[in-house]
Structures are given as structure tokens and as C-alpha cells.
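Q: Can I see a sequence and its folded structure?
A: Here is a first one.
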Amino acid sequence: MAEPRAVHAGHMRFRALTRMTRLSAVPLSIAGRTAVAGSLKVFGRLTDESALELHERTADQLFEVLGGLKGGVMKFGQVLSVYETVLPPSVSAVYRERLARLQDAAHPEGAEMVHRVMEADLGPDWHDLFASFDLDATAAASLGQVHRAVWRDGRPVAVKIQYPDARAELLGDRDAVILVMRWFTRAIAPELDGRALAAELMDRLAEELDYEREAEAQTAFRAGFLDDADFLVPEVVRQSGRVLVSEWIDGTPLAQVIADGDRTQRDRAGLLLTRLLFAGIPRTGMMHGDPHPGNFRLMDDGRLGVLDFGAMYRAVPGTAGPMEKWMRIHLAEDGDELVRVLRELEFLRPGVRVDADRLMRLFEHSGAPAREELFRFDGAYLRETLGQMTASMPVGLSLAFPPDMVHAQRAIGVGIGVLCQLEAEVPFRDEALRWLDVSQFSGGDVT
């Protein structure tokens, strides 16, 4: 009879093979549909209806595969549900309906897993810590699930439990997720570098498995925004191993505001999300690294509830933060100044020669929020920005991304994507001036 450890190892290998098989089928199916679409187009038979049907089939398959698996594949779905804004409206509606649901539609594990992890990490008498505990998960995420409970002192709490095999499944998903994202973005949004985004995403996910690190970040972030009129960060109640207990907060999920919020709600949520992007580092030394809609709640009192501190960008004291770099690049007054700033920030390596005018065009549209007192984010802004990047691709390829900016750039990109989903009108420029060192910016237009 096999030893339990050996049996578990064999089970994990079988699950990994099954996951790889299901994931690998996605790019093959996408490639097939793309080929069919190309053939129909050549013969003049690719109608709007047939193209939309191809997208619907692709979205259905992605939802079925990604929604049934955990690990990095769920994060792929979360990122994709933000960037669907770049698609044409008729197509984006398909992916919005299917893929945005990935943020809340992972299949939770049952009571057996809950008892196993809680007993292993909180002890056999873990029930005594709670006045009540709901064994049915209220939400399932990429690496764990959340249960509603009442702490022994009567406080409502959220209990985040990491899946026992999350680490092994995450590492096993890495290559397949990168492959899927590369193929999928090539099919629907070729302007995006799906491979680079997925590789960076999977690397950062490893940090999210460390709940002790997350609890420390959440505690520090809460201290930086304690008793704030604009933000609510729940208190960490207990952390041990794969279990993180925090205060429960209610409120309207940002995804619901995106779906049917009124103008006041959209602009309020957009203002606070913008403020969080700029104020995080000055107030806490950190920037929220995963600002997708599932991590925010719009409270009844107008505050923004902030959740999930596993993927934080930690700034190096005394150095320019990511948002400061973003503003400096986009506020350059001419091509020569832009080249100088990019070299100073290590986006242009010594000796690399570029066309300064073409470089200015590369950043012209994306920098519009930095130059206007009140800016309306929407899908058109994001699509035009990506289109401009594509048109300026030759000069863009001369830029190098500093290693410390990859994680931050994804956070900025996702945050701006959410602002576009909200279609929020916000004083983006004024928030920058409020929180950043304006002496580092170009003169004239920022005072």
C-alpha cells in the first residue's frame, strides 16, 4: 500500500497534467478560430455576426477553463477582465459578461479543506477563536477563499484561507498561463504584450502566498490611512500560516459600480482610486499592486474600502516612486526633455539613440490625464493610447523597462483600466500635484 505522501504526490502530478491539458487546449482553439476568421475574411464571408460568434465561443471556453482552475489562471482572468475595455464595444460586451465573472466565480473548496487548513495552522481548537463560522465560502479567489465569521469578541471578520496546493499549482500553471495569455492577446488585442504581462504576473503571485508578509503590509497600510475620511482599511485580527483573519467590511463592490453605478458613484470611486494611486507611497511607502475591481468597496459613507494586500509595490526610500516617474515622463515639454528624463529614469540605456519627436508621439495620448485639470477616462482613451503605442512601436522598442518598474507599471495599467471601466471624470493632475514632489516635474503647466 502506498504511503499517504506518495499518494498525494501522485494525485498532484495527475492534477497538474490535467490542468496543463485543459489550458493547452485554449491557444489551439483560439488559433483555429483565428484561422477560420481569416479564411472567412479572405472569401468575404466574415460578417459581424460570425465574428461575434467566434468571440463568444472563445469567451465561453476561457470562462469554463479558467473558472474551474485556481492558481495563476484566475489572475489571468482578472487582468483580462480589466483590459477588455480596449475591445470594440460589441466584442467587449461578450468578454465583460463572461470574464468579469471570474473575479467572483472560482469554485470554492468544501468543508473538509477548511477544517484541514484551519486545524493545521490555528490548532485543533480553532473553533474556540470564533463565536460563529460559516463553512460556506463567500468568495473564492485565485489562491484561496474567504469565509464570513464572527470573532470571539463579537466582531464580524473575513477569514482568508489559502488552498493547500496553491503553491504547487501556481508553479505548475506558469508556462501554460504565459502561453494562453500570449495567444489570447494576439487574437483580441495584439497591442498588448501578453507574454511579458503574464510572466511578471506569475512571478509576483509567489509573494501573495506569504500571508505573514501580507498581514504586515495590511497593518502598515491601515496605519497610514487610519481614521481617514476617504479610505477604510480593515484591521488584521489574526494571521497564522495559510490563514489571515481581518475585519469584515461591507459596501458596494466596485464591479457593481462599473456595471450599473450612477455618475456620482462612478466619479467618487474614480477620484478615490486615483488618490490611492498617488497617496499610497507618500503615506505608507507602498502602492497597492493589484487594483482590480474585486479589491474595492464603495462604502455608504463615501469612503473606499480597500482589500487584498498580497501584491504590494514597496518603494525604496529616497527614490522617485512609479507615479512620480509616470508624471515626469508625460509632462516633458519637448522631445529633448523627454529623452533626458527617460535616460535619467533608466528607460533609455546609455548610447541608445532615438527619434525625439517620435518618442513624444508615443506618450502624447497616454499623458492626457496629466495635462488636463479634469479628465474623463473611458474605453476610447485606452484604445487610442494602445493604438498610438502600436503606431510608434519601432521607437518604443528602444525603451528598456527598469526591473523595479515592471510590477508597478502593471499596477498603474490596471488602475487606469479600472478608471476607464468606471468612465470616471477625475482631477487626475491635481491629485498628482497634491501628493508628489512637483519640483521634479517640467515647469510651466503644473503650477
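Q: Show me another, different protein.
A: A second, unrelated one:
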Amino acid sequence: MERSLIILKPDAVQRGLVGTIVGRLEQRGLKIIGMKLVHMDEALARKHYAEHEGKPFFPGLVSYITSGPVVVMAIAGDNIIEMIRTTVGATNPAKAAPGTIRGDYAVTIGRNLIHASDKPESGEREVQNFFDAHELLENFNRDTDRWIFEQ
């Protein structure tokens, strides 16, 4: 079973889109196993975006993600990375398909509302950066799961 981290970035929080975005993910059938509101500090932002360090946009990225509260979520399921990224849409909202979160609500790359892990290895690392094991409820059953997943 894969795990993915989702971050609803400061623009999503400030624009009042948290409920809408969480609702879209839940309506898709995705299982949230952890969620919290945090104000990311610079050290955590640098750790999270370490792969981009040295790139011209890195300082702005760190400054932006630490500029206000974010909602972090851990989501678990089979093939979850691909499902989430399809639901979220392309990084560049101008290229994101209508019906995706970015395609419907975002306008620019720098304010694209949401981060989603790009591969299973990243998902595991990112979830561990933001959640302690006791904060994740991986073994609970939702009554709707039998209507979403093949048994």
C-alpha cells in the first residue's frame, strides 16, 4: 500500500479552499489517514524541498511555503500516487485539465494550491517528515470502503 503527502499550500488556506479540496479528494474515494494544520518553519521547508536546492526558484519556494499556515495530509491506498496526481492536475495550472483541482482553481505555477508526492519513495519520506507514526490511522475501516474498493 502506498502513502502520499498532500500539502494544501498557503494560497489554498488563504482563499478558503481547504474544505473544497479535501471534499474533492474524499469524493474520489481517497482515504485520509492523517491531517493537521501547521505553519511550516524554514528548516522543514528546506528539508521538504531539498531536491530543488540550488535552483533559481528555491528561495522563493521556501519563502512562499512558510508564509502562512498549510494543511498537511497523509493518504494511503493502492496506486494512490497516480490517483492523486490525476486528481490534482498538472503543476502548471494553464496546462491542468478542467475537472482537476489545479485546472478548476489555480491560475499560476507559483500559486498552484497543492503539493502531492510524485512517487512512492517520495510519499514515504514526505509523510515521515510531517507525521509521527502515532498520528497516522492506517488501520481504520470506513463503511464506504466496500463500495469503493474491490474486496
